[in-house]
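seq:
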Amino acid sequence: MAITAVDKIKLNKYLREHAVDDIYYLDMCDALGKRGKISDIEFLEYFTDSAVQELNKDSKISIKQLTKIILTIDAFLTWIHEANKEISDETLNKIRNLEYFYDEYLERTKTEPDLEFKESCLKTVLTTINELYPSEEKSESMTKYINQINTLNSQIKDLRKQLDEITKLYELSQESLEQKTSKVASLTTSLTSSQNESKGKDKEIDRLNEVIRELSDKITAFETETKNLQQEKCDLLPYKEQFSGLQDEIKELKGIIEKEATKKKDELKKEKKQEKISELIYEKLLFESANLNQIVGFIKDSGIVTSSSEVSSILKRIKSKINLEQTSFSMCPSYQIVSPTLAENQTFSLNVPYGSKYYDIMLVSDFHIEQIDSKVLNGFDILNDYCVKNGIHLILNLGDFYQGYPGMPLEYKNAVESYKLVEKSITSIPQVEGIYHAILGGNHDKSIVKYGFDPIGMLAEEREDIINLGYMHSKVAINCGSHNLGHFDIHHPDTFDFPINLSSSGIDIDEMNNYLTSIYQKQNRNRDDSYIDIFGHTHKNQFNYPASYCYIPSFFEGKTKKGACHLRIYFDEDTDIKYMVFMPLTSTTKLVKTNEIIYQKTLKK
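struct:
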């Protein structure tokens, strides 16, 4: 099979992306996708022609790329010789003349030689060909052919030298001719200037006379204008008093503007002060309970003058955002930030249009967002683009949307950063009309709750396209009107009740079945009534058909490969789930389907 133009592009790309010591024959065949279909002779002839084409260029060449090509030629010479295969005389002669081609390139382009390239790379391949294919073994006609080539090359060098000398002589003659032409032009200009000088003096006298006449007319006009201005001055005297009144009005308006500016400045100063008081209250109540007087004292100790009424007003605003509860009551109530109550084992109802033969859902998990940067925003764009192109309207996120701080003690810095991250998510995460993102909270999201707010709940309250599925487990019920077509369950286990080694290559089936059995028992349900169990948390991409569960990998940082899964659910004449098709997707610059898994639940007897 001949090497095609596309193959050549792939080979050049492979050489550019790999170092000299990292070039392997099998990898090169895999890059073409044609292992065993291209012979060693075809590879050798291609790389030989590539080297000759590079050396015949008139522009600068890449020594690094050329080194890779020539050392690849050297390797193929050895392999072909060991396989007792014939190499054409034309190819062998091209290789023997590589050093000559390089010398000719240097002379042609006036380039300094690369001694390391010449002594190591070129000498290596010439030594190999002379040892394996000595030139004296060739026929007399071939020797005569080589001598003719060398003679012609020598003649070409001589002709080029002669051409350089003729070019230099031509340039010198051109410079002499230009100098003489310049002198003649200069003399001609001087003569013309002398002839015009006398004529110019007569014209100058005429021009001065004309100027004198124009000045006389202007003096007359100026005198008339002066009289008119004096008259206008008399006419404008009544307006002087009116102008003075306008100046007083302007002064008064400036005073009003200055007062408004001062008022605005005071308001901004007050807002900044209240914002600082809010931060201090949050910091105080995050670690301990305190009554109003203790909070006021803590703020004053921080260098801010405040009052009980001001702190009480700010406390009311904090309650609207953070879960703030009364912990005790003596002379006045004490407050402390506590974790809000989280919903678990929720049911999410998905209504499909009547007459639908199937419904598409995007399954993602474990974003672990730490900051809203270009990587995260680009990831959402990739996800949304795939959904738009494939008609997907629902994204099911299986938990750990945020990185959080699992296992870490309370820290005010982490509390503030978490709150700011959720606020930025509300305004920055891309939103596409018609696409909804339903999020199940995971153990990392749950670790943020100790700071007094539910990150997933807060995000869903502010964004119409975000749906809060609660935490850890959720039942997804698929309905068509009032008829239930079936349901499946999604999970993101807490580390404490999921004692399974996630770092291993696989998860024991018995352990997983025992875990799922315990979960369904807590919900007073039978596991068989769920079509399939789908997991986040594991960062893996695995499907267990007999045990009826699968893992969805991390979208940003998988333990195997990052990606997602396109789920298509087929229905049996709007009466029940017929079967499901899971299409795993890998994530690079876009989501790409790698496989299709057809799953149909088998009921246990």
